[in-house]
Each structure stands twice: as C-alpha cells, then as structure tokens.
Amino acid sequence: MLPAALLALAVILPAARALADDLPGFVHDGQLTLCTNPTLPPMTFVNGSDTNALAGMDIDLARRLADYWHVAFVPQTMDFEGLFPSLSAQRCGMVISGVLKQAGRLRNYDAVAYLDSSVVAVARVGTPKIREMADLSGQTVAVQSGTSYAAQIERENDRLRAAGRPPIILQQYPTEDQVVQQVLIGRVHAFISQDVELYYRQKQLGGKVTIILAPDYPDFHQFAVYIRKDARDTALLQKAIDDLTQRGEIAGMARKWGISGDHQSVFTDRNTPSRFDFATFFGALFSTAFLKGAALTLVIALLSHLTAIVLSIPMAMKLNGRDSIVRRLLSLYVAVFRGAPTLLQLLFIWNALPQFFPIFREHWFTPFLATWLSLSINESAYQVEINRAALRAVDPGQVLAADALGMTTAQTYRHVIFPQALRIALPPTINEFISLLKTTSLASVISLQELLAVTQIQVARTFQFTEYYAAALVYYLAMVFFFLFLQKRIERRFVWADRNKASADAT
C-alpha cells in the first residue's frame, strides 16, 4: 500500500510542478485578474442592464486565456485612466481593454499583440473626406482622455506650427461614448478612434457619421494584452496567444463581434430614431441596475458623512482650544484636504496607496472601502469647520453659568453647548451632505458601480444618451429633493423661537 502511494506521489508531484511552471507569474491563487474599462464596444462593454455581465472581444479573449491556463477568470472594471496604475499596483494581472501596442507604453510594461486595427478620423455624415491629418488644421477634434491619440495630435500640431499653420484644437473626454457624442451634437468637427468600434456602432450611430480619413500610424495598428515587465511571463503569454491564433480561436472571436471583413459600408444604415425613446427611459428608470446604483450612491454618501461628523467633532473642539502642536497639525490636516481636489484624493488612495503599502492590494480593499475612506477624510475637513464655527457661536457666558452650577466639562458639553451648536450646525451640515451625495459620482473612476457609473456603462452600450442621462437625473433629483424636504422639517423642529410669533403670543 505504502509503495503504491509513494509511486502515485512520484507521478503527481512532477506533473503539478510542471503545471505550475507553465503558469505566468501574474496568475495568483488560481485566478487570472483582468483590468478593463467596459465602455468600448465591441472590445469590452456591459451587455445588458446587469453591470456584471461583461462581454466583447477582449472579455472573450481573457476568459479563453484563463481556460488555457486552467484558472478562474476575475474581471475588474474601472475608468480607462486607472488601468495602468492598477496594473502597476498589482491589483490585476493584465490589462485588455482595446489598448494599442505602442512604444511609449512598452518602456514600463510588456505587451503581446492579438488583433490588427486601424486609427480613423470620423465626422458627421456629409463632411468631405480629407487627405491627411494636416487638413484638420484649425478644426476641433475630440479624443478619449488617457489614450495616446492626444499625444499623436500634439505631434501633428508641432508640424503644423512649424509650417506656420493653425494647430488642431484638441478636446478630451473621459469615455469613448462622450467623444462620439460631441460629433453627433456638432460641438467638434471630428473624433479619433479605432475602426473596430465604429464597425460595431453602425446601427447605434444610424448613418450619422462617416470616416473621413484612415491615417497610417505605425503605433496604432495592433491591440495588445499588457502585463508587468517580466520576460518569462511575456514568453508564456506570447505562446498562449500564438496557440489561440493557430487554432483560429482569435479569428473566430473577431467574426463573432463583427471585427472582420469589409466594413466601409457600415455607415449607410439610417434606421436609428432620433426622438426621445420613452420605453428606454422608463426601462432604465425602473431597472435593477439603476435602483442598485442609486442605493449604493445613497449608502456611500450616508456612511461617509456620518464618519466625517464623528471625526470632525473632537477635531473641532481641539481647534477651538488653546494653541498646541496637535492644534497646528489639525489645522494643516484641514488645509490639505480642503485644498486638494476630491478626485485626486480618491485616485491617490486607490492607485497610490497599494504601491506604498502592499496590504492595500488585497481583495478586502474594495472600491467601496476606498471611496468610503477617501470621502470620509475629505468631508471631515469641511465638516470640522462647520462644527468649529457652531461651537464657537455658543455664548461663553452659558459655559460660565454651567460651571457655576457645578457641572462637569462633559455635562456642560452634553446639556449646554452641543444642543445649541446642533441648531446652528444643522443647516450647513445638510447642505454639505447634499453636495457629498453628488460628489459620489467621482467614484465611477475607480469602478464603484454607483449611479453615474451605471449610467455611463449603459450609454456606452446603447448610445442612447438622453434617455439614460434623464433617468439618472430623476434619481439624483429625487434624492436631493427628499433631503431638502427633510432639512426644512428638521430646521422647523429645532428653530429658535420666532420673535414675531413670541410677540403675538404675548399680546
């Protein structure tokens, strides 16, 4: 029995070791984690109202790579500009999100190409075609922020300035759907993108745009999988991509998502209605995705503000006290977090902290926790000023009177100072909460599926801007109006005695 067991171990252990040797280093705990921005159909997008239902060429490729290595596939969605910082922070093993293989990125990351593509300049239908990018001199062009299109246009502008011609006017937007929208509404002359997205958009765009130029840029010809620099991992990834290519699987994915063949005629379909679609609007308004997004927005706002209030009260008491090192440090804290943009603080906590403290790379540090931490710290810097002013507004004579009655410091604060300060601090506190409720929309950049993130994902999928934006607006207004109503009721409950009413009662 024992010899048989030893023989089995002798066979299994080398096989397991060989299997581990075939796995790239970015596969951990039997999981292949992917960072992607799901707003670029047909490469990566949300297919339906469920924000977890990712689909597209890139998602199929990532799933197939996970199958190839016999590991689980774990996608993480986020803003495009957060992809590479998250890769550097080891929050994911690879980036596949319609990202082009370019020399500038290869200085910091390794990449393996998997699909050919071409850059295109697109304008409204009826716009004359141009012969070169220089023909866009003096025109306004939109691109997605975080992409390499902006750098390419700047290189074109350098040549235009050298020739004494006006440069191309560049506008950058956070998502691709917002870029396309600028052309549709006539705000910009053209936008720059990849051909594969536009082929997929043919029915959504409904013949409203046309390709006016397909410039030949060497750095814009191939989509690639990006990983952290490692020669062995790159070789294993290249082998996997080569095997999938030889089997025809990657070509099959391209055909599935309409990325192959002759696509220059896709801009002739004019069946898309331009009127407001009430069915889409009401469908979004009562959808589970929007309800969950609104609930998450409300929860993160309430938790962050309550945490900020708890943090700010002792700080406000200390700031109203005598001069000390602690008081100066708290003043610096308030100045720093009031002065730094909220978005910058959010991105720093999500993308920079993991590089200094590896513990923040773990799965427990979710976008929800990062948002809660960031907004709580930021909001406490504002709330402390509200509380400090309210505490200082209480008449010092009442403190002396409480002391004369033999009250302790704790009793004085509880029965004299806090009740009066509450009435003063309440209106600006509720106003600050309403502002925070809208600030939560910034969390979409780190993939928190709050209301605005859900809206952007659905817009990217359908290109029905007005209907989904209108549904989101209804939710935001409903929440804000509820708290405005609540504010009036609370103020009426805690309001100081009205002098006119008191005079009328006296007579």
From TrEMBL:
It holds the Pfam family BPD_transp_1. GO terms for biological process: amino acid transport. Residues 294-486 form the ABC transmembrane type-1 domain. GO terms for molecular function: transmembrane transporter activity. InterPro entries: AA_ABC_transptr_permease_3TM (IPR010065), ArtM/GltK/GlnP/TcyL/YhdX-like (IPR043429), MetI-like (IPR000515), MetI-like_sf (IPR035906), Solute-binding_3/MltF_N (IPR001638). GO terms for cellular component: ATP-binding cassette (ABC) transporter complex. Keywords: Amino-acid transport, Cell membrane, Membrane, Signal, Transmembrane, Transmembrane helix, Transport. The chain crosses the membrane at residues 294-317, 329-350, 468-486. The keyword Metal-binding does not apply. The keyword Transmembrane helix applies. It is a multi-pass membrane protein. It is found in: Cell inner membrane; Cell membrane. Residues 1-20 form the signal peptide. Belongs to the binding-protein-dependent transport system permease family. HisMQ subfamily. NCBIfam families: HEQRo_perm_3TM. This is ABC transporter substrate-binding protein/permease. It comes from Gluconacetobacter takamatsuzukensis.
